[in-house]
Specification:
Strand content: under 5%
Organism: Streptomyces pyxinicus
Oligomer: single chain
InterPro entries: PAP2/HPO, PAP2/HPO_sf
Largest sheet: none
Number of strands: 0
Structural class: mainly alpha
Number of helices: 8
Protein name: Phosphatase PAP2 family protein
Keywords: Membrane, Transmembrane, Transmembrane helix
Length: about 230
């Protein structure tokens, strides 16, 4: 007897929970080490930062390119505009109000967490006698690295969950693999962050993505939205 195909069961959030627990432990551990000024970490930060700064002063053309990338292409405002465009697309083309709200709230929460942690740790930025760039506010975690991680992570997860085409998926993964590590390199190269600031941004950003996935997939958080509905 032929049975009609049944819809696949929604994914369980257990994997995301485990991932969030691991990322949370790593984020807290790094936060504590930075806050207490653990000497081996500070020494490694100083050594790497001095090396990158020598390169930045010597390789002026590369520094100019990195400054454009960090100030315009991978700037947190640019990343938030990409997320905002995705929110508009979800509402206008998919009528996916719950998903759009989830994306917008997660990005806003990432900004809030970043500012709270910065204020709580209040870590000074590197200071150079011959700086190649400047930045404001506290150093830990890197807002550029954290914002890029959150936006790239959320959009990649949405593309994967909704079965993006092979070309779109490969392009998105390639862009993320260049952008997330790339923005971290530019921040250290330009001498405005310690390496552990960047690692902290990546960890906190990935943690928020994992928690957002848990919230999205948790049974009480699921919302019935039209699948495959398009406008235009």
């Amino acid at each position: 007897m032929h049975r009609p195909p049944t819809a696949p069961a929604p994914p369980r959030p257990r994997t995301a929970l485990r991932t969030a627990a691991l990322l949370g432990a790593c984020s807290v551990a790094l936060l504590v080490l930075v806050a207490v000024g653990w000497h081996p970490l500070l020494a490694a930060d100083d050594d790497l930062s001095r090396t990158f700064h020598r390169w930045a002063v010597r390789e002026g053309a590369v520094t100019d390119v990195f400054r454009v990338l960090t100030d315009w292409v991978w700037d947190p405002l640019t990343m938030r505009l990409v997320a905002a465009a995705a929110v508009v697309w979800l509402v206008w083309r998919r009528a996916a109000w719950w998903t759009a709200l989830w994306l917008a709230v997660t990005c806003a929460l990432a900004t809030l967490v970043q500012q709270v942690v910065k204020a709580a740790v209040d870590r000074p930025r590197p200071v150079w006698p011959d700086p190649v760039d400047s930045a404001h506010y506290a150093a830990f975690p890197s807002g550029h690295a954290m914002t890029a991680t959150v936006v790239a992570g959320l959009l990649l997860w949405l593309l994967h969950r909704h079965g993006a085409g092979r070309a779109v998926w490969r392009t998105a993964v390639a862009v993320a693999l260049v952008s997330v590590p790339g923005v971290g390199v530019t921040r250290v190269w330009l001498g405005v962050h310690w390496p552990s600031d960047v690692v902290g941004g990546w960890l906190f950003g990935a943690l928020l993505v994992a928690l957002a996935v848990v919230a999205y997939e948790w049974p009480w958080a699921r919302r019935a939205e039209p699948t495959g509905r398009r406008r235009g």
